[in-house]
Write a structure and sequence with these properties.
It is built from 14 helices and ten strands. By secondary structure, the protein is an alpha/beta fold.
């Protein structure tokens, strides 16, 4: 690197944990080697992995750690509801939630597992007459390039999911911030660093596999004393993650309401409230989804690709298998 950095006085590493997880440690050490000794270095990170700690010890002089999550993990103004349903019921219930429960003027972020799920869900909402925008990046692009190519050749050569470039992501995010569209569909990695000051709702369409990731998602709502709501759609395979979250938060798990307490008077802020979604409320949207799948072959293709990628990802990395059978098997038994 020929660029001279001798006049730099301050250096800031934002999303430092992601830089190390992505394998940029050698480049960061090289940059530090080019900087003058008399400088101030600041690292911002949502988590504190060992690589980041080692880097701070080796590259910083007398560092000071400032933590903002020691006492408060989730805003006291955030209300949370965890709704049990099958995978097939998630889309119909989401349509019911967006149309009949969430106020149309409120901003809502929907978290899904991969960029393929983002595209599938955005197409469903588009055909259902619900305006939304998306933000996703290069996640899994390299890992699944060969597999996606095979799928595109054998299923539909004319269809392809490309990563949004930085300009497109900025445009879509600006539309959401300005309130031109009220719904933003994102993946976890693409959403890092997104700041929406007036966000009212977070929907976990795919439940996060770790408690810290859940906190990172829902922490975008109910800021600065404003009220907020987090809806989590939980299928059977995701129940161990919910139990991990409940133990992490240290809040009572409530599965029924006291008979003498009206639902609107029940405090959803201090509990992990878990229950079945009312099936009769989304019977119409279930039929609507079936018609969309019948009439739009591209939506069926996106669904097949999303399911394929999820299955492949689980087999390659063992994320769900490890958590369900090693870490949380006893909790799954308790729930059953």
């Amino acid at each position: 690197m020929d660029l001279s950095l001798k006049s730099v006085e301050y250096v800031v590493f934002d999303e430092a944990d992601r830089l190390f997880e992505s394998g940029f440690a050698p480049q960061l050490h090289e940059i530090l080697g080019k900087l003058p000794e008399a400088r101030q270095t600041v690292l911002f990170s949502a988590t504190l992995p060992k690589l980041l700690v080692d880097f701070a010890k080796a590259g910083l002089h007398d560092p000071t750690l400032v933590r903002l999550d020691t006492d408060v993990k989730i805003s006291a103004e955030l209300e949370m509801a965890f709704l049990s349903m099958s995978k097939e019921e998630k889309i119909p219930f989401l349509l019911f939630l967006l149309r009949d429960v969430i106020k149309p003027e409120h901003l809502t972020i929907i978290f899904v597992a991969t960029k393929h799920h983002v595209e599938y869900l955005s197409q469903i909402l588009l055909r259902a007459g619900i305006d939304s925008t998306t933000v996703y990046g290069l996640v899994y692009l390299t890992l699944f390039f060969f597999w996606e190519t095979c799928m595109l050749i054998t299923i539909s050569p004319s269809l392809s999911i490309r990563a949004l470039d930085q300009t497109a992501r900025k445009i879509n995010l600006a539309k959401f911030r300005a309130g031109k569209t009220k719904i933003l569909i994102v993946t976890d990695v693409a959403s890092r660093g997104i700041d929406i000051p007036l966000l009212e709702n977070v929907i976990n369409f795919d439940f996060p596999p770790t408690p810290k990731l859940f906190v990172h998602r829902v922490g975008r709502a109910a800021r600065a004393g404003r009220p907020g709501f987090a809806f989590s759609l939980v299928c059977q395979e995701e129940l161990p993650f919910l139990l991990d979250l409940q133990l992490f938060l240290g809040r009572p798990l409530v599965t029924s309401f006291p008979q003498d307490t009206p639902l609107e008077d029940f405090d959803l802020k201090g509990y992990v409230t878990f229950g079945s979604a009312p099936r009769n409320s989304f019977q119409d949207t279930t039929e609507e989804l079936a018609l969309l799948h019948r009439d739009h072959v591209e939506i069926v293709w996106l669904l097949s690709l999303s399911n394929f990628i999820s299955s492949l990802f689980s087999h390659l990395f063992g994320v769900i298998v490890v958590l369900a059978h090693d870490c949380s098997w006893q909790r799954l038994q308790i729930v059953q």
